[in-house]
Amino acid sequence: MNWLMTALALLGGACIGLQAGINGQLSKKIGALEGAFVSFSVGTLLLLFALIFLGQGNLLSVQSVPKWQLTGGLLGAVYIFIATLAVPKIGVATTLLAVVTGQILTSTVIDHFGLITGNQIPLDGKRLTALLLLALALYLFYKR
Questions:
Q1: Consecutive sets of 10 residues in the chain, 144 residues long: mean pLDDT of each?
Q2: CA dist., res. 101 & res. 112, Å (int)
Q3: Is 104 in contact with 97 (CB distance < 8 Å)?
């Protein structure tokens, strides 16, 4: 296992947890759609500066990629909007547990059928048990 990438992924998860709470508070002040827009705009500016100073790829190659590969930004915007809407109503932890459950369910289907990546990892008993435990955890977090 690549521990550096795992540590970075954990840091990314921590950022998402903080982001959800911050965006939830922002949405209370300016509205959910407005908060999502501001959040995405600030992130876009950060990425623009990072691209200018650190970028080493070829941005113009984006014209030659399959168009479906450009939908990631759309999906990110939908996630940010949903999170800004949900956090004030059900809390950060429940929102993120639902997000993680959705991520794991979707990625399990992608892995099982080898969609998008072409790398097939079949659903087995351990993974199914983990999915059921995630569903139980979501139920317990949501139940008040």
A1: 86 92 94 94 95 93 93 92 93 92 94 92 96 94 81
A2: 16
A3: no
- The answer to whether residues 36 and 79 touch, using CB atoms and an 8 Å cutoff, is no
pTM attached to this predicted model: 0.83
| Rama region for 116: left / alpha / beta (φ>0; ψ in -120 to 50; rest) | left
SS3 assignment, position 143: coil
List the domain boundaries for the chain.
Answer: 3-142
Asked if residue 59 lies in contact with residue 50, where contact means CB atoms within 8 angstroms, the answer is no
Tell me which amino acid residue 95 is: T
Q: How far is CA 19 from CA 8, 28, 45, 66, 93, in A?
A: 16, 14, 16, 30, 12
